[in-house]
Queue: 3 jobs
Job 1
Amino acid sequence: MNKQLRKAVIAGNWKMNLLPAEAAALVEQLKPMAAGANCDVVLCAPFVDLQAAAAAAAGSNLKIGAQNCHWAASGAFTGEVSAQMLKEIGAEYVIVGHSERRTLFGDTNETVAKRTRAALDAGLTVILCVGEYLEQRQQNITVEVVRTQTKIGLAGVSADELSRIIIAYEPVWAIGTGLTATAAQANEVNKAIRDLLAELYGRDAADGAVIQYGGSMNAANAAELLAQPDVDGGLIGGASLKAADFAAIVRAASEG
Ligand code: 13P
């Protein structure tokens, strides 16, 4: 209903794929497509690819993002990367709380909130990921789980800062499995997230917020998902590694 208030954001999450030269080559391939896109296009690269990806994307409509950041500004955190470091190297976005970080690397709602805070302080836009496990969907607690993840993840985020927050609803059972939420399932949860944002920040702020869907989105199913009133873009894993497939998703978003 208020979809015209929002510009869709299509973000590729390359995960742990592509060497720096491969990342730069994929950016080059995507540039012509991005020039005509009627949506924002973000590529979230591994840390070591950021410099090459940002250099290749310079002067184009493509924006570069990272896939995680630490919450401290600096210090004795061996192996970690700060939000300011990401900003300095050319990232404008950062994914926070991806289910792979939560499941495999111990991220919790509380650490996600700290990373979100640090990213905003560094001037980055945050793609905050939420989503339920299959058992939670089967127990009919999807909305409750996602509301809790969103609410805690946003603790300390002001209404003004909400314009630099993208929520990505990614059901864990749909990630990398080829199982996609139906358009109705995706829209139902995205709408529940928007209703929570309205409770927290007011209806106008909620209506302006970008809420993506992610989980096996591809060239074939993107148009239907992106046509949903509360689906404002996608966070794409596997299909973002193939230029033609990713371009088709960007086209679907430009039209949807
Ligand atoms: P797939 O598109 O490969 O299912 O991955 C989704 C995802 O995790 C994006 O962050």
Job 2
Amino acid sequence: MNKDFLLVSDFNKADIIHLIRLAIAMKNAEHEEDAWEDGYANGEPLFLGEGHLLALIFEKPSLRTRVSLEAAMQNLGGSSIFLSKDEIQIGKREEIKDIARTLSKMTDIIAIRTASHSNIEEFASFATVPVINALSDLEHPCQALADLMTIYEKFDKFENINLTYLGDANNVSNSLAIASSLVGMSFTFCGPSDFSLNDEIIKQSHNLNKDSLQIEHDPKIAVKNADVLYTDVWASMGDEATIDERKPIFLPYQLNTEILKHTDKTPLIMHCLPAKRGNEITDEVIESEKSIAFEQAENRLWIQQAIMNKLIAGY
Ligand code: CP
Ligand code: NVA
């Protein structure tokens, strides 16, 4: 097993299924007020993190990722410390390798959100404790595992499930493409040709599973057989200034009631949040009864507990 969780492919299919089952067990135990007894939640072994400290380094804003990580560590019995961009000034006040080695002496696990994935890789290579990618320009692996958990809760399987993503090829769609190929789910990417998945992600997905990934540029065709429709912002954090030029290009890929008329299966609607209503998704669709965006958000907490449990305790 890898020391870190930087890419969704750091876990294999068996690991992912185990993490999802553990996360669901913890969620059920909590919802049923069934205590986590003797290091177990509904029969699944559970690490109790008393005395453990999680450090969070966030160079970009966050609601779900920060709160789910901090709450998860508290639920496990540990605590957390949040370090903002201005506070540690990566590469400016201090070099990445020095921050990584210093924090490793004082904390038990570190989550980092930064623009450049190579910074996270460098950080992890110098850290002696597990490092979690809390979002980079390349991937958002914690989000993808929460999304798989949410889909698994609904369908109890991944085989023969069609997940269709509409919009921008970004960290979220990259992780979803790879996650889908790892668990054997069908993933259709649909976006403007100039903003499509890059060759490296396509190659990785095909190497893991030659049948999982499809690319379809016509949204009416892409949504037809979907069990789940997913979208994310058209301009990710750091690229917000490009939204006005992107809007007309992305408008045909908006998740709205018109596009839903072309679906055969009344699909579930997913969004990692935060959402820009009126851009990638309409208010009507995200608020509709088929939307499970807030179940996804809740599952960030449960999967985060399972991920930290595995990285620290090994199971
Ligand atoms: N989905 C997600 O990662 O949300 P935050 O940016 O608020 O953490
Ligand atoms: N693609 C988005 C995801 C936010 C959770 C971004 O990077 O801003």
Job 3
Amino acid sequence: MTTRTPIKHLAALDDGPVQVSGWVETVRDQKKVQFIVLRDESGALQLVHPRSEDADAIADTISALTLGSFVTATGELKHDERVKLGGIEVKIETLDLVAASNPETPIAEDSALDKRMDWRFLDLRRPEANLIFRIQTTFEHALRTYWVEHDFIELHTPKLMASPSESRAELFQVPYFDTVAYLSQSPQFFKQMAQPAGFGKIFEVGPAFRADPSFTSRHATEFTSVDSEFSWIDSHEDVMKLHEELLVAGFQAVKDKHGAEIEAAFGVEVTVPTTPFPRIPLAEAKDIIAKRGYEVPRADDDMDPEGERQIAAYVKETYDHEFVFLTDYASSIRPFYHMRHDDDPSITKSYDLIFNGVEISTGAQREHRIEVLIEQAKEKGLDPEELDFYLDFFRYGVPPHGGFGMGLARVLMLLLHLTNIRETTYLFRGPTRLLP
Ligand code: AMO
């Protein structure tokens, strides 16, 4: 039984004997005295060893230490304001080399991102990387707490499917006994199925797969999708309300718990967004950015990444807000399951949520009237027979409902002003990355 104390708890202890474990970050091997900076998951600590004139086994161990090795030390904790690292140090009494590291460290602080990804387990030893996943834990926990307190049920929908879940584009196909299966691109159909199942309000945080061959800073072939879906809505406005309340809960928790650390590590002040977030119909957003001199260079009615940055800049200047809901996307560019406006079927009751200039989410009210749904599927060139299992949900009655899907790594990237979701994904998956 070990009596190891996490490093961050040492400062609160009185001077006296302690045991610590972690990996060796640096060694200063001087003639009279040796220093080790030891790091664990909670912080860093200076260990000190004054060399003895006689045979000195501890000194020999320290001299032979390779950086990154895991060690356990016991010794005397001493508070001393002169110690730069937290005002404490531990004078070594015993030192055990528990697991030695290869002497050559394959990455350095300035290594290229891709190289760091090759050695992700070493890259993640950086305290900022460790912090990112603490923030993610806090954020997800706050969202879950919100959902649970509001009577949502957590689901885990299957990721092996008999049909595409979003579209034939970006679809992974896998051999499945005598047939083929597809990897789920989104829990879309199954989160909707929870409505005729009578669950009322559900959420899921789970993997989604897209066979997207592009190398951008915000696309992965596997990502964590944060999804929610609920019944008895009047319009997509209700979905946006839930969405913004969840984000406020998540950001508040992150700010409360990590605000100071985030400022120190990333130079970013976390802003808890005010509600309601600005909402701008897409057509209006395009007019606004056109007036700012940017015409979206697309043949269809969609927005592009530069347009998203432009409208975000406008919203920041005008409303001092980091978020904007772009609403009412054209039916021509939205999936068949999005509900269209009664008075103008050329636009959908849908939105994209933009955070600091990048899309983090899509949401909508869904079409729940079976005849309309079939018509819309046909119009999109889909075969209703292939969708029959999904259409069946609606043949037995489904109340008005809606929901959203949100990319977790994108939220973290934008929250911390990082430039790539590879930094905020534990193990990134892309077209040329399946390792580690
Ligand atoms: P959409 O396809 O817009 O909508 O995806 C929702 C959100 O998921 C994230 N995302 C991705 N993140 C990383 N890499 C990718 N390749 C990737 N693709 C998407 C984005 C995006 O905003 N079923 C709908 C959601 C719904 O209507 O409920 C859907 O999947 O942050």
